[in-house]
Amino acid sequence: MNQAFREAANQIRQKPVNLTHNQEVARLYRKSLKTLCSWVIDRDCFLERATELRGRFDAERGCSNAKGVRLLREAKAELFEFTHPDPYCVPYMPGGSLFMRNPPPPLEICFPDGDYPDDAPRHTMNLDMTISRVETGKSAVGGVLVDFGKKNME
After folding, report:
1. d(CA 68, CA 21)
2. How many other CB atoms are there within 10 angstroms of residue 4's CB atom?
3. 0.85 exceeded by the pTM?
4. Burial 35-56 (b: 16+ CB within 10 A, else e)
5. Tens digits of per-residue pLDDT, 54-79?
């Protein structure tokens, strides 16, 4: 990858959101469940493993800040170690079979005179067909870099 491409990609990438410790743990738990879903196919087995995973998170609830930071760092390393080489992805996400299939047309194209009906949606959609909100860190304003190798959006 040359320098010009890296600079262009850095301009398109959205700035990371500052998260609290609780938000980081919640996102780590969710990513752990998604990774577990990639490895375990049987639903009953998945539910057993998810219960074990939840128990591991609940066992360390309310620990000190220093221990929480250490556990978070170790958990991220463990999650990286167990990352699936070809993870399951939801069909409407990058890499899925429904990604950007039949996206809703912009309202400016549907109603060029600007006279929107009352029941027209007043929100902007992201590429993964979720509603665009700045506070979630996923905002459709500007550009979005889609990485098909990692099957995610930045």
Report:
1. 8
2. 8
3. no
4. bbbeeeeeeeeeeebbeeeeee
5. 999 999 898 888 999 999 999 999 99
